[in-house]
User: What shape does this take?
Amino acid sequence: MKWKLIKVPHSVGSLGKNIGTEKAPNEIARLLNEDIWLSEDGGVSFEEIKSLVDKSEEVTIDGLTAKKINLQGCKPFFIGGDHSISYHCFKLVKEFIDQELGLLIFDAHPDVYQVFEHVTHQDWVKFLIDAGVVKKENVILVGIRGADKKEMDFLRENKIKFFPMSGVFSERKNVCDFLMETCRKWDNLYLSLDIDVVDPAFAPGTGYLEPGGLSSRELLYFLQRLKLLKSLRAVDLVEINPDKDVNGMTCKLGARIVVELL
Assistant: This one.
């Protein structure tokens, strides 16, 4: 099953805190088309990358429905955009395949801090759980280090599996082994990647700079293993902001992430 690149240039869900993320999809597509010639294992060539970009689609949140986007025979790779797009993208994929989806999230924040009645980048996970779109036992969060107390209380009260960044750093291999074993049991896996899981030394172009995150190499280690899972059905990459980037570091990392997951 081939990957399909879907650009979602949306920053409304950032609550005005990360305006500029809407520019990331086109910038990452440009870098894929110009700067990356091969995946690290040599399995994905420039021709394949260029073909993916040439066949990419751009959609709006309002138009993100299974009736309008044909996902038949392909795996969607959504590029945002702020993290609120993940709520809509997850629902779209679940509606299309009509099966349960496991949700694995790499993020510095749990995103269960609900303030408004509409979905934002800081509460999309809670909306999915409260609406029953995803089972709470099928949610795993990795890399948390910037949570509010009430968010941690929500995770514990609902017995949602999470790995704080301190534990991820000290037990990288064991954590990755657990993720592989758990996600292998799910028939379908949705992977959501918030770039702020990466330390701002490697990814400064985002809205919330949380020191002490993964290095770019460490994130690629996780992703290069997770891509081997046959259950991997969809991916999103969010919260990259070209306007806040330094020397294009974050956008280039975003492009590399896309290629290494193909």
Summary: The beta strands are 2-8, 57-58, 74-80, 102-106, 139-144, 161-164, 189-194, 232-238. The longest helix spans residues 172-185. The domain at 2-261 is CATH 3.40.800.10 (Arginase; Chain A). The chain has one domain: 2-261.
